[in-house]
Amino acid sequence: MDLRRQISAGSGECLLFALTPPRQSVTPEQAQDIADATLKRLRPLDLDALVLYDIDDESDRNSEDRPFPYLPTADPADFYATYLTQWPRPVVIYRCVGKYEERNLADWLTSIDSGDVLGVFVGASSTSKQMLTDLPRAHALHQQLRPELTLGAVTITERHTVRTDEHLRMLAKQDRGCAFFVSQVVYDMDATKSLLSDYAYTCAERGVRPRPVIFTLAVCGSLKTLEFLQWLGVVVPRWVENDLRHADDPLTVSAEQCLRTARELLGFGRRLGVPVGFNVESVSNRRSEIEAAVGLAVELRTMLDQAAPS
User: Fold this and answer.
1) If we measure between CA atoms, which residue out of 149, 140, 145 comes closest to residue 116?
2) Model pTM?
3) Of the ranges 4-13, 200-209, 239-248, which one carries the lowest mean pLDDT score?
């Protein structure tokens, strides 16, 4: 079933694969080479959609040095429209709305093909960040201009751990037209289950149908990648961090952890009546981590197919 119809029907057991567009500094020829290699790598995976992130400088969220330098990337919508025209499935395009003036967001909303594209609006990375357009206004534009566009939102387990109100944020976004949620990378399974539980039971109390929640998983092949995840605010439980730091093969250890997390969250979501899917994040330029992410997607597709109701 097409991803848009899956989401509309409340069936969230989907598989997505997320990438960042190439750096702005690459030539058109290099961008096409990257796109061609991406298509060759991903076509055999039986994905429900490709995700293209919109990268913003998030140094406002963390005063510590960024483990990897911030390098501006191409606009994800432009990269898709120019170089990924042969991608045969839907694409989910992120928009960090604070980067764009209202008229730019309006132009994008009115120009895209809602048959091929789904959107995810992302708000500020911190309360101190200056925004050209805030998230509620971006949601209002979507409702005014393109309500038929399937729009998603971000959910963050760590925010729920601190404030215990992330499920209420989800419901507020749902009221503003968001039809699905994609999480930040999850490693803390217990905290993620608490968020999912609070969301499910509050939906039940309000008589609201839970929307699909797509959990992002990412393999970790080096201590620097681990440090970057933590810099972004991802909580990695101490025992998982110890496993990764002391493993001879951290990629295999992290992939196994991602699979355990996926199985647990899939079963938990089914028990609660919340549709659950998965998004494999692959933003590293290290070949070993790219190949491990592809391998994780293969394993997740097998898991989802085997778990599908007969």
Assistant:
1) 149
2) 0.93
3) 4-13
